[in-house]
UniProtKB/TrEMBL annotation:
Span list, region Disordered: 277-311, 536-558
Ranges annotated as spanning the membrane: 13-35, 125-144, 156-174, 195-218, 224-244, 326-346, 358-375, 387-406, 418-441, 485-506
KW Manganese (keyword) present: no
Record keyword Transport present: no
Protein location: Membrane
Protein name per UniProt: MFS domain-containing protein
Record membrane topology: Multi-pass membrane protein
UniProt-recorded Gene Ontology molecular function terms: transmembrane transporter activity
One Pfam match: Sugar_tr
Organism: Macrostomum lignano
SUPFAM superfamilies in alphabetical order: MFS general substrate transporter
Length: 558
């Protein structure tokens, strides 16, 4: 009645987009601050005078040449990175006793170059583990944000996680993805605009990545960049006065007076008149007997404490596992998130490993992500969530699996580097599209009482997958061959294919009302295998059954 996407919702939505920009910076900044620039051993006899661009004739007697992969003979990157000639007329080589010389064309210094964390397997693993430590924080934050948001509300958890993210600098101990704003976005907006709210906010995330490329190019020193990334979320303290709580969450918690005041405020800003006798009622669990109802439900209906039990059901995410259909639906969605997050972060973190300038490849990577979000925005409202999601996964699988042919059979001089980058970008578009649908699709499958926790739990499953992403991205460091370079993308492609096939078993949610109760969620899950049924029919059945249940409640009360 207050409008699907009026002025009030737009203001709140833009505030949530600020959170998305901050999250994108915190998530991808390791690509820059932990980048390992091109390097070689410092020639001891030259001392401080030795630098990356020095005339090759001055060092060719001291630094051995690479055996292959040199496009321009005599160029700086044609020399071995970690060895010096042994001298004394022998063919032996030694380590870099005098330190290293780094290519300063892209960065003044990064964390590995400043501390000489190169040419040492133990130190290289440590750098990879630093990225993993951040992702462990993301996993913990995703789990905690779901629990805390359903208990204390979307607003305080969103603002709190943003402030913690800023204060923690690298955000290695808190979530770099406060999922409150996703549920906030769709819960405050009507069904007609829900597809836009669920995906457009991710445009802000992609725009944040593009902005980060510019900031990283401007600063070029990892400490300065780290300070900039940590300072931005601190501005979220202003959201205390600007952001409002989700009205759906307030209603689900029985705080009807606050919800009504908020709805009337939104209506006033949107220029909509509401009736003076507006009545809000918290959603109640269905009480009709269904084939999938547990015996415990029957006892609840005859118990004087049934209302308390229903309220408990509403806020207990574990209840979805008491029914086979909702349990399978939930586990399938967990699998989708696990694969998507692993592949997505693997591609994002390996963007610095792609051939070419890191700022150009990072910009293309961010642009591919933006395009990836446009795809579900354009298609999910027409083709449905399921078809769009599965198609995106199949695109990613085809593109990523194809890269193995370029790596294994392409020319050693890098003549097909453009094709490798193109295929990687197509893979990023596909997996990003699937990510864009997953947020919206997950939130639409679960009822209001546990919706935020469902998104948070699904995200936790995904973040468990991201723990492997740093090692997947750096696999080429540990398997020194063309196959080792191709293996990360090949593994990602195979996983995307598996997830795409299993996603076809999930229910379609296009055009249906958001489930309000656990029974609504069960009915939706029961339609997962009925591909010939229009999704609108699912919503119609849910509404009709809710009306029957309400009439039954009134009759029993009389």
């Amino acid at each position: 009645k207050i409008g699907s996407f009026g002025r009030f919702q737009k203001i709140q939505y833009l505030l949530a987009c600020f959170a998305a920009v901050c999250c994108s910076w915190a998530a991808i900044v390791p690509v820059y601050i932990l980048n390992v620039p091109k390097h070689r051993c410092r020639v001891p006899r030259l001392g401080p005078a030795d630098h990356w661009g020095i005339n090759s004739s001055l060092i060719e007697a001291d630094v051995p040449l690479k055996k292959s992969g040199c496009a321009v003979p005599g160029a700086a990157d044609c020399f071995e990175a970690c060895r010096l000639n042994g001298g004394n007329g022998t063919n032996s080589t030694t380590g870099c006793s005098a330190g290293f010389v780094f290519d300063k064309s892209e960065f003044i210094d990064t964390f590995p170059s400043e501390l000489n964390y190169v040419c040492d397997a133990g130190r290289e693993v440590l750098v990879t583990t630093l990225v993993q430590s951040q992702l462990i924080g993301v996993l913990i934050g995703a789990w905690m944000s779901g629990i805390l948001s359903d208990r204390f509300g979307r607003k305080p958890v969103l603002i709190g996680s943003m402030l913690l993210m800023g204060l923690s600098g690298l955000a290695s101990t808190v979530s770099s993805d406060p999922y409150s704003f996703w549920c906030f976005g769709i819960e405050f907006i009507g069904p007609q605009a829900r597809i836009h709210a669920g995906i457009v906010i991710q445009y802000a995330y992609a725009v944040g990545l593009i902005l980060l490329v510019g900031v990283a190019h401007l600063l070029r020193y990892w400490r300065w960049l780290n300070i900039a990334v940590g300072a931005l979320p601190l501005f979220s303290i202003l959201l205390i006065w600007l952001l409002v709580e989700s009205p759906r969450w307030l209603i689900s918690r029985g705080r009807l007076a606050e919800a009504e005041a908020l709805i009337r405020k939104a209506a006033k800003v949107n220029g909509v008149e509401l009736p003076t006798d507006l009545e809000l009622r918290p959603p109640s669990e269905n009480v009709s007997k269904t084939p999938d109802s547990e015996s415990a439900d029957d006892s609840d209906r005859s118990s004087p404490t049934s209302s308390a039990t229903k309220s408990s059901e509403q806020t207990s995410f574990l209840r979805v596992f008491t029914n086979k259909q909702t349990a399978l639906m939930t586990m399938n969605m967990f699998l989708q998130w696990w694969v998507i997050a692993l592949v997505y972060y693997g591609l994002s973190l390996s963007s610095g490993n792609l051939p070419g300038d890191i700022y150009l490849t990072s910009f293309l990577n961010a642009l591919a992500e933006l395009i990836g979000y446009v795809v579900p925005h354009a298609l999910a409202g027409r083709l449905g969530r399921r078809v769009t999601h599965a198609g995106s996964m199949f695109l990613a699988a085809a593109a990523l699996c194809s890269t193995i042919f370029v790596e294994l059979f392409g020319p050693a001089d890098g003549g097909l580097d453009w094709l490798l980058v193109t295929l990687a970008m197509l893979g990023k578009i596909g997996i990003t599209s699937a990510f864009g649908v997953a947020y919206l699709w997950t939130a639409e499958m679960f009822h209001t009482g546990v919706r935020q926790m469902a998104v948070g739990s699904s995200s936790t499953a995904g973040r468990a997958g991201t723990l492997l992403a740093p090692f997947l991205a750096d696999m080429r460091k540990f398997i020194a061959s063309s196959f080792g370079a191709a293996l990360p993308l090949l593994i990602s492609g195979c996983l995307a294919l598996l997830a795409g096939l299993t996603s076809l078993l999930l229910p379609e949610t296009l055009g249906i009302e958001l489930p309000e109760t656990l029974e609504d969620c069960r009915r939706l899950a029961a339609w997962r295998s009925r591909a010939t049924v229009e999704p609108q029919d699912v919503g119609k059945e849910i509404k009709e059954q809710q009306a029957v249940d309400e009439n039954a409640n009134r009759d029993s009360a009389v």
